[in-house]
Amino acid sequence: MRKALILAVTLLVLGGGALFYAVRAARVAPAQEAAFDLARPGQIVVRDHASGFVRGSRTRCERFATAAGTGVCLVTEVAKTYAVVVDRTMKQTRRLHIAGIPSRARVSPTGRMISWTVFVTGDSYNKGGFSTWTGILDNRTGYAITNMEEIPLTKDGRRYHSADVNYWGVTFAGDDNRFYATVSTRGRTYLVEGDYGRWQARVLRENAECPSLSPDGRRLVFKKLMPGGRWRLHGLDLASMKETPLAEPAHVDDQAAWLDDRTVMYAKGPDVWAVPADGTGAPRLLVANASSPTVVR
């Protein structure tokens, strides 16, 4: 996920630690998107791979996600990165200045909670390299956390402390409180379950990145690092913690999304593909020349 971005990331001059603040509503964009409705059920919303526009709209994003008529567009403008929140007509409602190169974006099923991940440089524990900052916005209250690395973390039953902890790839449950994410520390990655209200997280298992929670909240799909340095999509039953490799054998460097209760979709090369979430079947081309897929439910 990271190698291709190292050069671009190093061009940014960043600083500061975790910031906590309330975000005020941004000015409304002067023009609305004609005949485009993010809340229309059944549609697959994607980012056009060539132009960067969200298809059907006049909005260009580097990453995009949507749910329940709310969208988040990560965009870089003159070396500054923003998380732009839009309504169902793609009209801007908030604009947050965030640091780094866009990597991941997610919106909770209700449209209330929004998360993003960016690549940054300048963290004291990673001199000469790069790390990730992941933010969470409560779109109802306007309260935002631009870097969640200080969330209290429990590992092996104990409070875990390390200066190099960083997170990416948040996915939300339907209650706007429970979430899952990846944490990296001391050269290893872990799947964590978080509680937003209590502001705490706990490690569930090792080697699970960019989780995506199923619509029923019972399963995750994530990418697992395999021998040779490639990532393969795996499914995880949260009740039994049974792990199943999916029938996509290719290297997939993406945070998958759920097409329906049985199928996940993901970017592979310049296209969006789909594969059953239970390990059966075979991958199929879903949308050509696209990325950042989301199904509106």
Task: Provide the descriptors you would attach to this structure in a database record.
297 residues, mainly beta, Neuraminidase, six-stranded mixed sheet, 1 helix, 1% helix, disordered N terminus
Assign a percent range to the helix content. under 10%
Named CATH topology: Neuraminidase
Helix segment tally: 1
Q: What is the N-to-C succession of helices and strands? A: HEEEEEEEEEEEEEEEEEEEEEEEEE
| Mean pLDDT across all amino acids | 89
Name of the level-1 CATH class: Mainly Beta
**Class by SSE composition:** mainly beta
Number of domains: 1
Please state the overall shape, judged from the principal axes of the Cα atoms. globular
CATH architecture: 6 Propeller
Report the radius of gyration as a whole number of Å: 18 Å
Report the count of strand segments: 25
For the termini, the CA-CA separation is 28 Å
Largest sheet strand order: 12-11-16-15-14-13
What would CATH call the homologous superfamily? TolB, C-terminal domain
Low-confidence stretches: 1-32
Strand coverage percent? over 45%
The main sheet comes to: 6 strands, mixed
InterPro entries: 6-blade_b-propeller_TolB-like, WD40
